[in-house]
Every structure is written in structure tokens, then in C-alpha cells.
Amino acid sequence: MQLLDSLGRCNNRKHAEKPCLECKKMFRPKRTNSKYCSRPCQWINNGGKNKKPVSWWKNQRGYIEGRIWLPDGAQIRVKQHRFIMEGILNRTLQPDEDVHHIDGNKLNNNPSNLRLVSHGEHSTFHNTNRKHRRGYTMNLTENERTARAIRAIAIDLSRMGHAAIAKATENKEGELN
Fold it and tell me: Which pTM does this prediction carry?
């Protein structure tokens, strides 16, 4: 007879099945001294002492992220800098609010290094200091930039742009037929 583990897989574990001390379900252990079929069963038996209230790690984007267990037993995932700012403000952050690291170090979540800013303000700050990969940047003053925007509005540049796109689309459709 072929031995199957608790999920119906054969030869997945070397050890024979045995009952979980907590739920009495049969399981195939990884090690000979395993007593429980799962972590929840283990946590129940030891009064939750192995269940960490908070668990942090560094995510792919370089921020510290973690899991937090709420008093009602629910588990949430949060970024540590947002969690700290919510604690400082004593409220949850709005979706359009960002937390800016003043020194630029994503791992430095000291409250003195965090500043609450709107999403638009945060984007503007980071995009002005950004190195452009291709193309060019125009070193315009704020007055020159405003003057160009006003001229574009005055000559209805967006309408002209839409007309050019429509004309190009017509030409492309004519070539296909």
C-alpha cells in the first residue's frame, strides 16, 4: 500500500502519518518530533506564545512591510512608515496621503524622519529631482513654465493636438483599405 500525506500526495514525506495532538487529524510530519499538523494547532496548544504579534521584513521596493494581528484576531499587512504615521496622527491615513522620508532612506522610519504630504505634493517633489532616462529636460523657471501653459491654452493647443491625432488615424485607416 502506498502512503499518502494529508493532501493525497504520495511519497511527499518520509515519516508515517500520525494524529495531530490538537485536532486529532492525521498528518504526515516533516520531522519525527513534529506534534501538530499546522501552526494554528500549535498556537492553540501553547496559548499563542509562538504567534508573533508583529512580523516585519523588507519588501521588493525597499520599504519595511509587515503583518500585524489586531485585537479582534484579524491580520493586516502594512508598511511600517504608514503604520507609524497613523500612530502619530491617531487616525488612519487617507488614500491620497503619502508619508515622505525626509532623508530619502526608506529604512529610516524614525518619526522625526517622516512627513505627511498629499500624493500630488509627493509626486512633484520626487519628479523634480528625478534623473530622466531619455529625452531632455528644459531648465525653465516657474514664470516661463506658467507663460508657456497660458499660451498653450490661448491658442487652444489641446484641440489642435486632438485634430492632428484624428487626421493621423484617418490616414492610417485609408492606407489599410
Answer: 0.52
